[in-house]
Amino acid sequence: MSIHRLRTRLSLSFAIFAFLAIAVLSLIIGQRAVKQVETEIGSALGETAHLMADKLDHFMWSRYGETQLLATLPELQQPDNPEAISRLVNQLNETFPSFSWIGFTDPDGTVLASTDDILKGVDISERPVYMEALEKPFIGDVHEAVLLADLLPNPSGEEMKFVDISTPVFNAEDKLVGVLATHLSWTWLKEVKTSMAETLKDREDVEFFIVSPAASDIVLGPDGMLGKTLDTDSLQLASEGNSGWTREVWPDGKEYLTGFMQERGYEEYPGLGWSILVRQPVEEAYAPARELMMYFVVTGILLVVAAAVAGMILAGWMTRPLNRITRVADRLRGGENVEIPPYRGITEIEILSDSLRTLVADLTSAENRAQHDELTRLPNRYALDAYFEEREQDAETLAVLYLDLDGFKAVNDTYGHAAGDQLLRQVADRVRSVAGIRDLAVRIGGDEFVVVLRDPQDAGKMGRLTGEKLIRLLNGPFHLDDGTVSIGCSVGLSVWTAGGSISSTLREADERLYKAKRAGKNRLVSE
């Protein structure tokens, strides 16, 4: 009956372990998957924003260059034939369909010729497209149509918006003869957005925004947000010249992954500073990760059931020899110095028994090595911490001597590191000689050592006597392979009493050591 209960418990342990392992693994992999999905999608959105900005810049650069080229035509530089200019303008409009309207004004701002004679004879001298282009080319940000709203064809019925590009036209004598003004229809920008959306067609609810720097208002985006002011971290980052992606909460209270980029111009085209944002709701972005998590949950349940069944089968086969090993292991855990018994019979249990025997031996050896300095074989800082932890429970007084060698660097520099190591080993022997059975001599590192005297009747006096003895011992000559050297020793002394902080006492001894250094070295400071 007891065997049956043990088998049941072991099978349950297998199941629980499998469940916990799968749960932890699912959590780790799930989080990693979410992070990876977030990074991949965020990077894709950032790259899309970059590509869209690049397309905008190249498009505007082309239109900007075309305008500069048109301004060099002889018909415009010698505007003495308005009819010829009118024919030219209409031909240009057919050649460059991105321009919704092309007009040429006289130096005073009156339109001499234009596309389909729209606004011909109208004074546009108060419009920025003329005023800003009297000395140098002008590129105006997106704006609503004012004079052309009712004059240009508008099959879609949507509100018409334009981007202005205009340039002064000078004759051979470098005299202003007019201004070439153009309006780019906003339709081309929507086409750019549509083409970019095609690159992300496999992603749900991706939205594009173009934000003008003038008032941080949306000039291209979802219908309900056009013209509205936007204030997001991504917009701030883009306006500062950064590019990439971020995870943020938008004004609608929802969380989005947002790619961002600022349009910076290209070649001679200086750019309008538009910020391009591409966003996707986090819940949509994480959909693949959620599917992966669900897969792990279902797989985990199946594996837990399989582990429980496997545990029942294996338990009956493994119980007897394992019980014997377990009993000995429990005694080891209780602190007894016992040996894992060898087992002969089942090959796997034989290996387990031999491995545990080796493991116990290795752990004992490793623990000893971990608490000793490899060069001097003195206990190290880990051993010191363990010693302090034990002494806080059973000691009343400790005298802590913190010492540092004077002149060790000169030996290293003169004779080399091998000689320095030989010197440290001899120093360790002399330091070890002043420590009693209940005391501890430690190498902290480099040429620093600590000696702890346990429960001296007069800790301060005993510490000073031991410190002076250390100085005398270390002032004696050291015979190395490369010659005989002499060094000094500075010592700091501090006394710990029960109830105090040993770490503070050690720090105080260290501070007094450096007082000894500053006071001239090769001496003891105890206060």
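That was protein one. Protein two is written in the same sequence-then-structure order:
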Amino acid sequence: MKNNPTIFDELIVDNFAGGGGASTGIEMALGRSVDIAINHDPEAIRMHKTNHPFTEHYCESVWNVDPVKACSGRPVGLAWFSPDCKHFSKAKGGKPKDKNIRGLAWVALRWAGTVRPRVIMLENVEEFKTWGPLNRRHHPIKAKQGQTFKKFVGQLEKLGYEVDFRELVAADYGAPTMRKRFFMIARCDGKPITWPEPTHAPAYSLEAKSGKLKPYVGAYTQIDFSLPCPSIFDSAEEIKEKYGIRAVRPLADKTMKRIAKGIKKFVLENPKPFIIQCNHSGERRPQSIQEPMPTITGKHGYGIVSPLLIQYHSETSFSVVRGQELKDPIMTVDGSNRYGLVTSFLHKYYDGGYTGAGAKVIDPLPTITARDHNSVCAARLKQLSNNSGEHLEEVRSFLIKYYGQGIGQDIKDPLDTITANDRFGLVTIAGIDYTIVDIGLRMLEPSELYGCQGFPSDYVIDHDYTGKKYPRSEQVKRCGNAVCPPIPTALVKANLPDLCHKESIKSMQHLKRCEAYAESI
């Protein structure tokens, strides 16, 4: 269905529309849907159409869409391009590149030369600037890096466009992710290119402390801490029985090593885990969860440690758990002081080495990729006066094996003697010793990832407009490949303010259509 604008209205076109990240950001700025969305992937188009039902969709290659026919003589105010980035990204490593995929960006020149959009915006990975020719083995020629990119910019300039480009971080514009991407703006209307000023900064920065900028939005704002975080020592069958969910067990050796490093860095070596977790002052502290999540990529490579207090008395069954969030006043404290602390950090599952120790949940989420690699890791603490715990000995053996000074041991074997000076698994909080009695791990849910990517909470990700359900892998893939909406919003507001949030008949009609559509479903 088309918006049916008048001949005087400028069209907004989203090439490589995908799941709708750029379109969503543009819509947030304009107050209406984009007019045309193009993508070759039927599933991507279905998700886009579900969330942008009044956009005209083309499910075909961008090269098969004739800009002149698609626009029907109407002017184009903005043409957005997010060509496939995999064959530029360093994440692809030394694998052969596909020159056809690397050349998809040339389609922007086709639009510039035929319908002459007033403004062109292009998004890609940082390595896009290294675009150059490939050798016979389909690897970039180092001596010619950037040559094709310079030709691309030169062609736009020959067509009468002013061109500028830079890298932007989504967290600087309010998204709970540290995703950094290359952005190019080209315009031919004689107006200057404007780069939006950041609205957010790290909580410890002078800008945030002085109130000039808002502090980064924490990853924790998008995390559902009520979801179960199964023990890394339980089997898949035990987890299924306890929680009714599936989990990969046993975990890979490299994953266990990363968990151990994370526990050491964010729990054992954290001087004030409880106070840091309780801090809501906006100051940057090691365990704070007040900052944006690191960059989210399509591979889904992170996990969380959730800060909770668990009450260990008056529980009669597994289903009865007395707990509370740290932001709330603590419940009645009796003489036994049997509260346990759950601390959190983010864990990556990327292939390769295991030197990483995860990330703080106070920071933005790292880049989300198209694969399911992000997880939550939780170290459950209990006061040392009571060492009971189903997995206590396994925790200590695990820690010794993966970062201890000795040669280590299998966690199935009897634990070697622990001396009074052994600090494995001990955490001191306000002068009181706690021991780690269990370590939990769960994958981040797609809804949490979309939230960290900057999508609105009502964005539909689990089914299309026909009711067809999307598997988890498809949801994560769409998220990892999506543009973070807050950046297109900022770019459009800065460069096309005349089109943004007009109280026009057209925007009112669009609102009425949206309301009618919502009622129909």
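The chain has two domains: 11-214+470-520, 225-444. Keep this in mind for the problem set.
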